[in-house]
Design a protein that fits this description.
Family: Belongs to the flavodoxin family.
Keywords: Electron transport, Flavoprotein, FMN, Transport
Pfam families: Flavodoxin_1 (PF00258)
Number of strands: 5
CATH superfamily: Flavodoxin domain
CATH architecture: 3-Layer(aba) Sandwich
Largest sheet: 5 strands, parallel
Bound molecules: flavin mononucleotide
Organism: Neobacillus rhizosphaerae
Radius of gyration: 14 Å
Helix content: 25-40%
Shape: globular
InterPro entries: Flavodoxin (IPR050619), Flavodoxin/NO_synth (IPR008254), Flavoprotein-like_sf (IPR029039)
Distance between the termini: 13 Å
Strand order of the largest sheet: 2-1-3-4-5
Number of domains: 1
Structural class: alpha/beta
Length: 149
C-alpha cells in the first residue's frame, strides 16, 4: 500500500494541519510519506493507493498556483483506483471559505475514490482536533475496506 500526503502552505497553517493529521496516520500507516507539493513526483501519481491533499485558498476562493500541476495531474492520469481526502485552511473573512478545498473535492469526486474532506479556519486549534481525529478515522476505514476487497 503506497500512501502519501501532499500539501502547499504559504504561512504555515495548512502545514500545521497536515502535520497533525500525519502524526495520527503514522501508527496505522507506517509507510505514509509527507511531501510539499513541489517535492512530489507528479509522474508517479497513479502509483499511489491513497493520497491526502492539503491546500490553502488563494485569490477569490481559488486553488493556489503551487497546486495547479497536482490538480491537473489528477485530471490527466488514471487515478480511478485511488482513495483520496482533501483538507485545507482558509479564512472566513473571504466570501468563499476554503474554496480550494471545494475545487479539489469536486474534481477528486469525479476522478478518484474520494473518502473525506476537512476545512479549518487559519491555524489549527485544540477545538479542531476532534474533527482531525474523525477525518483520520474515516480515511483509515475507507483504505482498510478497500484492501480487504
Ligand atoms: C490574497 C489572499 C487571498 C485569500 N483568499 C481566500 C479565500 O478566497 N478563501 C479563504 O477561505 N481564504 C483565503 N485566504 C486566506 C488563506 O487561505 C488562509 O490565511 C490560510 O490559512 C493560509 O494557509 P497557509 O498558512 O497554509 O498558507 C486568502 C489569503 C490571501 C493572502
Amino acid at each position: 500500500m503506497k500512501i502519501a500526503m501532499v500539501y502547499a502552505s504559504r504561512t504555515g497553517n495548512t502545514e500545521e494541519l497536515i502535520k497533525c493529521l500525519y502524526e495520527r496516520f503514522l501508527p496505522h500507516f507506517s509507510n505514509i510519506v509527507l511531501y510539499e507539493v513541489d517535492e512530489f513526483a507528479l509522474s508517479q501519481l497513479s502509483e499511489y493507493d491513497a493520497i491526502v491533499i492539503g491546500t490553502y485558498t488563494w485569490g477569490d476562493g481559488e486553488i493556489p498556483p503551487d497546486m495547479f500541476f497536482l490538480y491537473e495531474a489528477f485530471e490527466k492520469q488514471n487515478v480511478k483506483h485511488m482513495i483520496t481526502g482533501v483538507v485545507g485552511s482558509g479564512d472566513r473573512f473571504y466570501p468563499h471559505f476554503c474554496g480550494a478545498v471545494d475545487e479539489f473535492r469536486d474534481m477528486l469526486y469525479v476522478q478518484t475514490n474520494l473518502a473525506v474532506t476537512l476545512k479549518i479556519e487559519l491555524f489549527p486549534q485544540e477545538s479542531d482536533m476532534e474533527r482531525c481525529n474523525q477525518f483520520v478515522d474515516f480515511f483509515i476505514k475507507r483504505v482498510k475496506r478497500k484492501s480487504l476487497t
